[in-house]
Amino acid sequence: MSEEADGALFDVAPPEPAQRPAEEDLRPVTRGVVEDRPAPTGEGPRPPLAVRMRPASLDEVVGQDHLLAPGAPLRRLVEGAAPASVLLHGPPGTGKTTLARLISQATGRSFEALSALSAGVKEVRGVIEVARRRLAASDPRRTVLFIDEIHRFSRTQQDALLGAVEDRVVLLVGATTENPSFSVVAPLLSRSLVLGLHALDDEAVGLLLDRAVADDRGLGGTVTLTDEARAHLVRLAAGDGRRSLTALEAAADAVTDEHGEITLAVVEQVVDEVAVRYDRAGDQHYDVISAFIKSIRGSDPDAALHYLARMIVAGEDPRFIARRLVVHASEDVGLADPTALQAATAAAQAVQLIGLPECRIALAQATIHLATAPKSNAVITAIDAAMSDIRTGAAGPVPPHLRDGHYAGAQKLGNAVGYRYPHDERAAVVAQQYPPDELVGRDYYEPSGRGEERAIAERLARLRDVVRG
């Protein structure tokens, strides 16, 4: 069955009240579930530290004060005062799943969690059908449908949720690491609160670590954490609370000190890299490339290399980076350094010829060249000004002496008559009108006076004097 056909099944009308479903029909659908409930005592492996330390109340949530202040939309939602569907977006490990659970608990609703990575139309349809039956049976337990990685649902799958969200058959809580504006269909956006979660700052991550060390749900004081190890864990977390607790748990398992002390050496032994937060189709993609170009424009090669490295390590397409360098070479360096475009174009060719990892060197060379080059936006300013005049109607007829005279009868029309061939003059420059009549004397290119454009400005002034008579 196609997604389109299957999606139509979401509009099933609820049964009549007399058709009260059997109790077993009200059981939640669990396929594709992302819930990680703690295993009963003595059964199965112990849940990860990050799961055990998941906040049980708003008071334990850290790092999202902008959403949880008194009267803020998310606090009102969690407290059950304003039931509405919501899309939570933010970096990993910032509390999206936790907040979905708190919304469910505070509003007394049944919590159903699905992952867009494994669940399809069938699983989502099952949850919505159970929710409809609960409503028809006057069951007080309303349904919170949590969909993790909702941006991975196709447009058709997202559209199929609209009816259930519109009628509040379910309270949808969608979580995504990408900006919903890029990844969620507009009708679903308009029916939901869109709330952005911030990456945790160092203070928030440190609080999570301290709580996990001391709390009975966590390590229960069985280990201690040195200041150096704590600082390193905070840095390694890169704003991801889950990552910090995962690293802490690995370090605790590796402790051999008889006093149970987690030292810097222990942490360095188990974790040795920082997570790079970057999405190639969303806001991080655009934010980082924007910072990259602005750093080059601002003549800061070190910052530019940082953003270049961030993109390369995160897996950005090097061809995209190369294209931006070629554009920047003309847009922000231009003729202040005529070799800038050559360097950027050569880097783009190197990307095509050799690829990663070696092409990173050519990209770095072009980045440094452009960042340290004298800057001028005279080229882009000139072409944009000329195009603006064209769009406003300043496009008169071509002067007769410049028209094509290479066909029979052209001279009878006056074409090419009176044209002066510049190479007949020693300096190859002659006094002659080139633009249409209404644009005579209009200057588009204004050299900046920086770098090579200093000499160009002096020469251009003499050229204009001669050409314009």
Count the DSSP helices: 21
Please tell me the total number of domains.
Answer: 4
The residue fraction in helices comes out at 40-55%
The main β sheet shows up as: 5 strands, parallel
The count of strands amounts to 7
Element-by-element helix/strand order: HHHHEHEHEHHEHHEHEHHEHHHHHHHH
Fourth CATH level, the homologous superfamily of the largest domain: P-loop containing nucleotide triphosphate hydrolases
CATH top-level class of the largest domain: Alpha Beta
CATH second-level architecture of the largest domain: 3-Layer(aba) Sandwich
Average pLDDT for all residues: 83
Q: What spatial order of strands do you see in the largest sheet?
A: 2-3-4-1-5
SS class: alpha/beta
Question: Uncertain regions: pLDDT < 50 for 5+ in a row?
Answer: 1-42
> What is the CA–CA distance across the termini?
77 Å
Q: Give the CA-based shape.
A: elongated
CATH fold annotation of the largest domain: Rossmann fold
Beta-strand percentage range = 5-15%
* Radius of gyration, taken over Cα atoms and rounded to an integer in Å: 32 Å
Organism: Actinomycetospora endophytica
Pfam family, one: MgsA_C
Protein name: Replication-associated recombination protein A
InterPro entries: AAA+_ATPase, AAA_assoc_2, AAA_ATPase_RarA/MGS1/WRNIP1, ATPase_AAA_core, DNA_pol3_clamp-load_cplx_C, MgsA_C, P-loop_NTPase
